């Protein structure tokens, strides 16, 4: 890892380099997609070097993403540029909801019934209760599957829904990933609350690693109704940490983008409508927490 990241290695950022293909996905989602989707290969290489990824690893990862239809390349003179494919752009927009909008509150369930037993794999967060019955949390982003669709709520006091959810959705692993995120980044929040001074390059490096780790945790979370989780479930704490650090780093991080990142038209904008909208949404989320805390404090008897 670069020394710029190593100074906070104790609980502030993971010491090992991330996997290159997954990290490039994070980089495009956080920095490039809201600024048009195209980036010069040289900017990719320079940014990834801060995270211990060599030029050869980056080039290999780019080739794999091109082969998978996630990136599209073009060459102008001696320089290569890569942009998101249309399909990947749609995926990024959907994934950005997990990062920049408050998690939805899921209150009930979707059931799918089929006349004949089914064995095909289901899209997350659907799981099978039996060969003829599948279940998923009822949210706007959960698409129906083939079969007779129904909605349901658990009757109070009937059955152990928490144990069922823990088994079917592997919530022990989800919890571990959230806890790892908290362990890696809690120290950075403590330092940001102190008198630490970061350069724009360091701020962007930490924000990218923050997004990379939180995205991994949030994508694995099926976001079930609250009664499925124990009181110490770490998702809310992880969410608050992510939002607070992201907002705290963004001014400097976006300055680095404007100074160091190039596409085929020149320098990427440090700020635009989309990047400002993202930060505004997160600040509104913080404001809602503060308002709720004041209300509960005022009405506590």
TrEMBL record:
Q: Which InterPro entries match?
A: PaaX-like_N, PaaX_C, PaaX_trns_reg, WH-like_DNA-bd_sf
An example Pfam family from this entry, by short name, is PaaX
Domain Transcriptional repressor PaaX-like N-terminal, first and last residues per copy: 21-87
Q: Which domain of life is it from?
A: Bacteria
Domain named Transcriptional repressor PaaX-like C-terminal is located at 169-255
A single Gene Ontology biological process assigned to it is:
DNA-templated transcription
The protein's name in its UniProt record = ArsR family transcriptional regulator
Source organism per entry reads Thioclava dalianensis
